[in-house]
Design brief:
By secondary structure, this protein is mainly alpha-helical. It has ten helices and three strands. It is globular and about 55 Å long.
């Protein structure tokens, strides 16, 4: 019974969120079981381009460190905001969501050539948080019950939290920068005088990922509860 309930809940998670979070959890489990090591996963341009270890272009986005507070914190934020984007502004636009992943990953990898970062998954999570926060500007956030602010400030609050924990803020700045570039090109520039859409999802992605009908049994998460926990709970202003 418990297995059937878990399976039903798991299959209700939208496909891109389900695939990415599952890959992250399985990668971490494989490291914990010593089936692989982080040295086989990290971002290393020399190994990628000179020794053709191209899998590192993907695996460096899948490992968030050993199981612990930092891993759980990142997984919760990744799952929640990735899912809310996919069920919110990307609802029925799976191909566009996949294209955002590819565009953000490519841009982040290019920037990664110039910064000393070996795993980019956390920066990718911040990118997702940034895009969601800019598309939901009127959601009021409650961070650990200590701070109340509107959603667009969330990435900066997370950066301040990282700073308090003694972590490098380069990761957060990279995620914010890539998220802002995507948001500007997709949401801002097309609406400017003389602007236009520079980001267009390839038709091959639409043919693969977009479907004609939505699943009638699909049960999305409400965007009115962006964090789901005390550190990210929110509600819309005036609601």
């Amino acid at each position: 019974m418990a297995y059937q309930t878990f399976r039903q809940e798991y299959l209700q998670v939208p496909p891109v969120t389900r695939a990415y979070t599952t890959a992250c959890v399985l990668t971490t489990a494989a490291v914990q079981l010593e089936l692989i090591t982080p040295f086989q996963l990290y971002f290393n341009p020399e190994l990628i381009f000179k020794h053709f270890q191209v899998w590192r272009l993907i695996t460096n986005y899948l490992f968030f460190g050993p199981v612990g507070f930092n891993f759980l914190f990142n997984m919760i934020f990744l799952y929640r905001y990735c899912r809310m984007l996919e069920e919110g502004s990307f609802r029925g636009r799976t191909a566009d969501f996949v294209f955002m992943f590819l565009f953000g990953g490519l841009l982040m990898t290019l920037f990664g050539l110039f910064v000393n970062l070996v795993f980019l998954g956390q920066a990718f999570t911040i990118m997702l948080v940034y895009v969601w926060s800019r598309r939901n500007p009127y959601v009021r956030m409650n961070f650990f019950g200590l701070l109340i602010f509107q959603a667009p400030f969330l990435p900066w609050v997370l950066m301040g939290f990282s700073l308090l924990l003694g972590n490098s803020i380069i990761v957060d700045l990279l995620g914010i920068a890539v998220g802002h570039i995507y948001f500007f090109l997709e949401d801002v520039f097309p609406n400017q005088p003389g602007g236009g859409r520079l980001l267009r999802t390839p038709s091959v992605l639409k043919a693969i990922f977009d479907t004609a009908e939505d699943d009638p049994n699909y049960n999305p998460l409400p965007e009115e509860r962006p964090g789901g926990f005390a550190w990210g709970e929110g509600q819309r202003l005036g609601g």
